[in-house]
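hey m, so remember when u said the tokens were messed up on ur end? i reran from scratch. heres the input so u can diff it against urs
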Amino acid sequence: MKVDFRWPQFAIIALALLFIPVCLTQAQTATPTPTSPSIADPVVTQISSSTGESFAGDMSGNGRFVVIESTGNIATSNPRNADGNREIFLFDYAQRQIYQITDTRSALKLPGATPTPTPTPTPTPSPSPSPSPTPNPGPDPNTIDVEVSNNRPMLSNDGRYIVFTSNAPTPASFDGNTDANRAALKADGNQEIFLYLIPAVANADLASGASVPAVDLAAGTFTRVTNTPASRLPQPGTATLSPFVADDNRFPSINDDGSIVAFTSTRNLPGGTNTEAIPNPEVFVFNRITSAFAQLTNTQGTFVFNENPSVSGDGLTIAFISNANIPDTGSATGNNADGNGEVYLVNFNGAAATRIRQVTRTTTDNASVSVNILSPGRRLSRNGQLLAFESAADLSGNGAIQTTSTSFIYNIAANTFTAVGPRATSGGDVLRFPTFTGDNSTIVFASALNFRADGSAPTTAAEGLNPNSRVQIFSALVSAPNTFTRLTDTPAPNVSFAALQPFASNTRGRMAFSIARTEFGGGNSDNLTETFYLRVPDRTSEASANAVSYFTGASLRPVTGPSPTAPAVAGLAPGMLGVARATAVALAPSNASATSATETRRPPLPVELNGVTVSINNAAAGLYFVSQNEIRFVVPIGLAATTGTNTYPVVINNNGAVIRSTITILPAQPDIFTRDGATNRALVFNATSGTMMIEPFTVTTSVATTSGTQTVPTVLQIVLTGVRNVQASQVTVRIKETDITGTAIKLVAPTDTPGFDQINVELPASLAGAGDSTVIVTVTISGQTFTSRPADSAPRIQINP
């Protein structure tokens, strides 16, 4: 029988195989450790995966969109960043797609060209209290004539606008290597402010995991906001120096509906007064409705900065940090004669500033150290009533400067400061990037400190929320700012320091963040900076432990933990299809199935389905199917194998009802699919000629070549699960009583369908006429062997003479 068989059709067959009815067999799991009410059950999904660096920039209020700045070729829809330029991308959680929004190319040096030196004027001073991100890897700097990049994206809360900076005149499509474009870049090349209008999408229930109408989010429109000459012309890269372009318009912030954009600029914009010989960076506002600019600050002197504006939801309150001596409205003199970086607030009426006032009033003996840190990003609450920032001053006490910083909430109406979280007793802490959820109820921040839920220091490490002192995301209600919940459980990074900045939706239940050198289980094997989606489901109840049994996904072998008795296995493997079953508790409110499953999406499967999530060691599992008694899922591909009797916690959250268990993760656990549930025929194809044919097989196959028909050894493709990342040298395929190894194992690889792998094996001549034959796959890793079903139950194929 010959079947015309291609991978898109295979995906349909694979999905159908998942729902063959089978009998329920009881398996055992170890007792899990209950979670403290002050420690959430995070469900972490890795969004990006590439050889570049990917930084989250913001999240829409409903948690559907995440905007990303990346040098990677991370788009799942029309990827086109193979050159590694820094581009803007948009992740849609509902469509499970990443769209490349900008498409630009730096001007590369022409062969044999010698760059003409450009005089370097004194640059505009622009000290900042927060460091720039680590430069992203990309093309060799020595090959770049003029660098083109797209930077610092931020989303409007309604998910309709992205604001960002770019030095490409047309970020939708720009190639700096044409003669005209190269000349234009060399004559200016300044970073400008742009707005991108995201195509409208229908509302979606993100927790349902249901498919939504396809919308090409890269088909929106761009609006150029600024058009200014550069303070300094571009400089090409060298073997020792990165290329330079002026960053005169920077750190844009946007309000709820994208009508107001605040930013810093060293240029004199229309209606402005920034006309000094070396203009200071000043805070400007662009009103999209009127297309008018307003200059909010007008400072004099050298080494003065006004940076990092943050806008409220209505756009009428703006915070920024400045070392200028800016008088409060109505006052003749300012209160910052020492030039310390202080936080300021501006009231804005849509056209001009109506009031400006200094929020912090601190002093320092060291002018090179900033007492107050207002990082770029969202620091104002949407309602404009609260401001979050960091300070080394005791702002809620006597104002004295401390040796370390902490976060503060400033209540604008009450003019009061509330410290949030403890200070480090020694050695400091990471930048905390405090921000508010869009509903104004919760402050969220990062910290590597270990403290109790009430913020006090623990007597022993185990008493704290962060005993391993890794950078985590914490939250606290604004109404109870020193009662904390840890929202993440960050694995040990592969460096001593890993920064993390949270970006919140309207609630703490959905966030985005980026972190480097850390494997959450999503497959960050190269340890570069990737972008992650954090889901923190509500908890309304807890089921009894061990209410769930686990099985392999292809043949439903019970998973019983260490020292299993056949046909049971010890555990599941990364990237493997698995099944969870329960009879005493409901795993889902009703039946629901994923309508798409493909490795070309991110994530490949929905990680929420009918309000259900499954996490293994906090890594999100992709979901094929959920029902009251069964869940079919894919084990996160980046989980490391457990050792000895160690297990990982598994948390199933059914719309708030939590079911806890544990599971062993093995390096591999081969499990062969069958074509039906009755006859036990292995899902194996003759893949010799590229046209997939099912049994019966012969040991040779005739294939058409340019020189005519040739008879070659048959290559069978075995479809199985549980061998993700296994090497061909680690595989033995036993057909009947013949072991096939070495070069006859032609391929071990994942398919485009999550949870489904393939092994291609060349049949030896000795199997001619073997007849009805068992197929067994064994994987040997570090002296351990992992085997598919034994001979008495192994699936079978027919090999004719």
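this time it looks ok to me. The longest strand covers residues 401-411. if urs says something different then somethings off w ur setup not the seq
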